[in-house]
Amino acid sequence: ELAAWQRPLRAQFPIIAAHPDLAYLDSAATSQKPRPVLDAVQTYLTTTNANAGRGSYPWANTTTALVENTRVRVKQFLGDPDPERSSVHFTSGTTAGLRMIALDWLPAFLADGDEIVVPHADHQANLSPWLEAAELLARQGVRVHVRQLPYQAGSGDYDPQALAALVGPRTRFVAATHVHHVYGVDMNVHRLRQVVGPEVPICLDAAQSVGHLPVSVAQLDVDFVVFSGHKTMALPGSGAVWARGRHGPVLRPGGWSGTPNTVGVAGLAAALDWLTAAGTDRIERWTVALTSLLTDGLARMDAYEVLGCRTSLRADTEVQRRRSLVTFRHREIGSQDLGFILFSRGFMVRSDGHCQAGRDAEDGSVRVSLHVHNTPEEIEELLTTLASLQ
Ligand code: PMP
Q: Which residues form the Aminotransferase class V domain (predicted)?
């Protein structure tokens, strides 16, 4: 049933259709774009391209409406229960979104002696902005203690005991990741919320989850969600920050005084529509099944070591599964060499480091990351190739 649903979706990616001998296994780095997104961008540029927020002619008004309507689309896509109060800001991607929260919003929220909890070995984009914010405040005489949340060996999730020990009465803010870009499991955001209590804002780097699974801000009970357009079937240079209403304005004053990336917004709107029509729940089931196939296949080969959780299920709970990516190493072949060998057989994977921050950053490895266009045949062929390299 899922296979019949997936086939026509795969056919909508022109770049995939044009290269039947290649398997694109690097969607965590950036996603391919389905035809309706490409069409929406072209239609926008050839029919109503204008600046937004000003002008008294139809193209300008249409562009303004596009930007405003896409804010609403983002809220709907994230299951926002209170769209009247929340806000959506368009950014150039996750890195810029996290920096915006860290440098524009967070400093005014913190006082001398406050503590923030941030990830220790997640994407670099989700560490350096928080450290920079603390440095900025320190120069103003406000000392903020940055507590770094470590991983639990073997699960790929944050260490629950360390988390409980790090959080205290002065904890004012938590930055976390939804799906880790190396370990591939979804972090236990519910546990984070339970430990920090209802008041402390939680900011979620959702770069690897939005578009891959239903992301509901109501269920997750988080305060900020940040994601990249280029990883969600839209264009590079687009992305969004969703902010819960209780935090008030997040952007620096200025509003419409800058030109927004209207082309990026047009692409993002089309991408969210496409993902909604495809069904993020089905995309999740499809990619989780493919990733399980790969993880279970790798577990049967001694030559490979899977990073984070070794199985397709996370160690500490049966319900949280490995998401759409697996990172592994060959015990003898270096990751760059393995990447070249795999490309010579038609597989495009990410190799080497993965912009992971901190002391626990993993050395070179190969990451296979999937999206809705990938197929069980691609995974079977990849496993056959990996087996032949043992
Ligand atoms: N966070 C995570 C978890 C990521 O995977 C990435 C992209 N690799 C980023 C942040 C940065 O995203 P961008 O390059 O789109 O700013």
A: 24-382
Distance from residue 348's CA to the centre of ligand 1 (Å) = 19
Q: Check if 178 has its Cβ closer than 6 Å to any atom of ligand 1.
A: no
Find, among 269, 226, 217, the residue nearest to 81 by Cα.
217
Q: Are 134 and 195 contained in the same domain?
A: yes
If asked whether residues 264 and 291 sit together in one domain, one would say: no
In this structure, the strands spanning 87-91 and 23-24 are unpaired
Q: pLDDT tens, 305-318?
A: 999 877 776 555 54
Nearest to 354 by CA among 374, 329, 373, 331: 329
Q: What is the pLDDT of residues 330-374, one digit of tens each?
A: 999 999 999 999 999 999 999 977 788 776 677 789 999 999 999
The per-residue pLDDT for range 58-116, each reduced to its tens digit, is 999 999 999 999 999 999 999 999 999 999 999 999 999 999 999 999 999 999 999 99
304 and 199 share a domain?
no
Could you give phi then psi for residue 222, rounded to 5 degrees? Answer: -110, 170
Q: Is the CB of 367 under 6 A from ligand 1?
A: no
In this structure, the answer to whether residues 171 and 285 fall within a common structural domain is no
CATH code for the domain of 17: 3.90.1150.10
Residue 177 Cβ contacting ligand 1 at under 6 Å? yes
Task: Let me know whether 204 and 89 are in one domain.
Answer: yes
Can you give the C-alpha Rg of the chain in angstroms? 21
**DSSP percent split of the chain into helix, strand, coil, nearest 5:** 40, 20, 40
Q: Specify the 3-state DSSP secondary structure of 157.
A: coil
What burial class does residue 346 get, using C-beta atoms within 10 Å of its C-beta: 0-12 exposed, 13-18 middle, 19+ buried? middle
- Is the CB of residue 298 less than 8 Å from the CB of residue 170? no
Distance 123 CA to ligand 1 centre (A): 7
Question: ipTM > 0.90?
Answer: yes
Distance CA 316, CA 231 (A): 28
100: Cβ below 6 Å to ligand 1?
no
